[in-house]
Amino acid sequence: MIISVDAHIPFPRSLVFSTYRDKLQELLPYMENVHRIDPKTYQQDNERVICTNEWHGGGEIPTIARAFIDEQMLSWTEHNVWNEADYSLEWRITTHAFTEAVSCYGKNHFRDCGDTTIVENRGELVIHTHQIEGIPDFLKGQVAEFVEDFLSQKIGPNLTQMGEGVRQYLEKAA
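The structure corresponding to this sequence follows.
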């Protein structure tokens, strides 16, 4: 699954970039599908920040999905490299469930467009069916399809919500 979501935020690029990078805790109230974010590592190296955050999601889980999805599936670790030189973010997500079966990675660009910043979220989510353990082979394809569908319904809206949250946060701070 290809991830492609843009956010248009009417603030300067440097402010938008630093808000995404440094204000996660303050942005939590704007993200209804995220219960908490636990910072794990943070290292500054010239114009780069390398950090790791553990996300704990939530939101509505369909009744049928509850048989397959537990709290572990709604948590993930995000590994980030923020590069201020080109206003980009390289990211990789490690899921806490089906860790070996899920690959999710990408790169976001923060583009200057006059008085607006366009945040281009780009990435890919891949479910490696053969790596799913603990499920009979004949069900792996269905489970992989379900997991991908479920995650695709969360990722896009979460990215949109994050952009909207940054905009609202910056408007309140102005």
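The chain has three helices and seven strands.
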